[in-house]
Design a protein that fits this description.
The protein has about 550 residues and is α+β, with helices and mostly antiparallel strands. It is built from 12 helices and 25 strands. It has helices spanning about 1-30, 35-50, 95-100, 165-180, 185-200, 205-215, 265, 400-410, 445-470, 470-485, 495-520, 520-545; strands at about 55, 65, 80, 95, 105-110, 115-125, 130-135, 140-145, 155, 160-165, 220-225, 230-235, 240, 245-250, 255-265, 275-280, 285-295, 305-315, 325-330, 340-345, 350, 355-360, 365-380, 380-385, 395-400. The termini are far apart.
């Protein structure tokens, strides 16, 4: 009886274990059903296909399917493209918010503004030509005494400038004295003698003095007929002069002209009566103003400029002829009053096409599409737009090149790639120009030579900045300064291989600076600067600078 009870208990225990095992298998079958596994696998693959693409802010050619570090520079990768909706244009550039922020991409809403063209003019102070006078000898004779002995002396009207001895004048005085004795009976002869002296610029007081003294004067005073500055002295004491000889040239500087050079492209924005505010390089901090009174109707065939004249008072005498002046004219463009005005930084210009990037509406992330526009006049830091945009649209005004570079790398329409062809770039490839692979070998040179290169480098930066402003006169002036700095580099401080390397680089630098100085075309100046830039890069890489860390930057849009 006890034996049967033990067997029964033993059997119930194993039955319970068996039930638990079957229940576990059933739950496992439900959880890990093959159709569920297949469904999960399908969802996972979809997530990978539509997941975030990670790129480098500094090297956008790097694209990875998961976060990490850039294999080129080691920076943390940022998300570039997230899963987008079907409403996004396939030709549009889709950036993540993080990528746009790192690339400093900013946008501005297109609005209508009053277009004001700011024309910058350069010129010099000149004497008013209408106030220039020559002091001449009215009688022939010999200069007995000079009272004005140097140029630049201030004289006043009526001031005695010199004394002249004239035999002809003595004879005319004697004729006056003889005719005075018979003036009652022969008044015509008396009046003729007085008129002869008047023609020689003797005053009535001087004639009366001669007649009352009854003694001819041996010398006559040359008096100034105007007030001003003596700009030229053409005689010395003892010189014999004939009638009509120019003794002095006198300029009245109480009023002066500012003669500006206006380029052909700027003349259309200038007109008589417009206000010009200008400053003089020699007098910083002082602002002057005047009105345009004359625009030369003829273009200079050599300089391709026309003279624009502004008149201004100069009672203080601070404005002196040949001082350099810079003027600004703000001209309202009435014919473009209904056009849009956008910042200059928004426009990418290839020479044939002008494009902007327009933000697409209805998307959470920044999405931009290229748009070709028509450019009107340049307003300095902005452009007038003739067509291509509508009011209220949002365009990229900062980071435009970054957006365009992303478009190129994704094979979408861009500034230099109108058709939208894919650009093949390998990870780690850095585009730095045609000769980037030719890295010069470093040569150790003296500290003095490096300091001289430092001076040339400072002038080079100023030359580069003048090209950014696209002002030919400033480019030429900066190139002349660079020439001076280059001439000061002492090649005797080098020897052996260093001397040979520098002589080769020096020849190329000199040649390109000469082209920049001699040519008046900005395009030719840019081409010469490109070659100068490459050779100066070689010089710095070869010899180095003193106490400076510099970076060789390049434009991905140009060679």
């Amino acid at each position: 009886m006890k034996k049967n009870r033990k067997f029964k208990l033993f059997s119930n225990k194993y039955i319970n274990y068996s039930l638990l095992l079957v229940l576990g298998i059933l739950i496992g079958w439900i959880v890990f059903h093959p159709s569920k596994v297949k469904e999960d696998k399908h969802d996972h693959s979809t997530e990978v296909a539509q997941g975030t693409v990670w790129t480098c802010a500094m090297h956008p050619q790097i694209k990875m399917s998961e976060p990490g570090k850039c294999p080129i520079c080691g920076m943390e990768l940022i998300p570039l493209v997230k899963s987008g909706g079907s409403s996004i244009d396939p030709d549009a550039v889709h950036l993540s918010k993080e990528a746009a922020q790192l690339a400093n991409v900013l946008t501005t809403v297109v609005t209508k503004n009053k277009p004001v063209k700011e024309v910058r003019l350069y010129g010099k102070v000149q004497a008013d030509e209408r106030l220039l006078q020559s002091q001449v000898a009215h009688v022939p004779g010999r200069i007995e005494k000079l009272f004005v002995n140097f140029t630049g002396e201030q004289v006043k009207q009526g001031q005695v400038l010199a004394q002249i001895y004239s035999p002809e004048l003595i004879t005319a005085q004697q004729e006056l004295l003889e005719s005075a004795k018979t003036k009652q009976s022969q008044p015509e002869i008396y009046e003729a003698a007085k008129e002869k002296l008047r023609q020689w610029k003797l005053t009535d007081n001087q004639i009366e003095s001669i007649e009352s003294s009854s003694v001819p004067r041996t010398t006559i005073d040359i008096v100034s007929n105007t007030s001003g500055i003596v700009t030229s002295r053409n005689i010395n004491s003892g010189d014999y002069v004939s009638q009509g000889t120019a003794l002095f040239k006198i300029a009245d500087l109480s009023k002066v002209w500012i003669l500006f050079d206006a380029y052909e492209s700027d003349i259309q924005f200038l007109s008589k009566g417009e206000k010009v505010s200008f400053t003089v390089q020699a007098l910083p901090g002082i602002n002057y103003s005047g009105s345009i009174v004359f625009i030369d109707p003829v273009i200079d065939p050599v300089t391709r400029v026309a003279k624009v004249r502004v008149e201004t008072g100069n009672q203080s005498g601070k404005l002196k002829p040949e001082m350099f002046a810079t003027g600004i004219v703000k001209s309202s463009l009435g014919e473009y009053k209904n056009n849009f005005v956008i910042p200059r930084s928004a426009v990418l210009w290839t020479g044939k096409r002008s494009i902007v990037y327009v933000k697409q509406q209805g998307t959470e992330d920044p999405v931009f599409k290229i748009r070709e526009i028509g450019l009107g006049p340049s307003l300095g830091e902005s452009y007038v737009i003739t067509d291509g945009l509508s009011e209220g649209e949002e365009i990229v005004t900062s980071g435009t090149f970054s957006v365009d570079a992303a478009a190129q790398l994704e094979g979408k329409p861009s500034m230099m790639n109108q058709a939208g062809e894919k650009i093949n770039t390998m990870p780690g490839m850095v585009m730095t120009g045609e000769n980037a692979s030719e890295i010069p070998k470093k040569i150790e040179v003296s500290m003095d030579f490096k300091m001289q290169l430092n001076n040339l480098y400072d002038r080079y930066i100023l030359l580069k900045n003048s090209f950014i402003l696209s002002e030919g006169t400033k480019v030429t002036e900066a190139a002349k300064n660079a020439q001076s700095a280059l001439n000061e580099v002492d090649m005797s401080l080098l020897s052996g291989e260093a001397h040979t390397k520098w002589m080769k680089i020096l020849s190329n630098l000199n040649n390109q600076l000469k082209i920049i100085v001699s040519t008046g075309k900005l395009e030719d100046q840019r081409n010469a600067f490109s070659i100068f830039n490459e050779n100066f890069y070689k010089a710095i890489k070869t010899f180095g600078l003193m106490g400076k860390t510099v970076y060789y930057q390049f434009c991905p849009m140009a060679k």
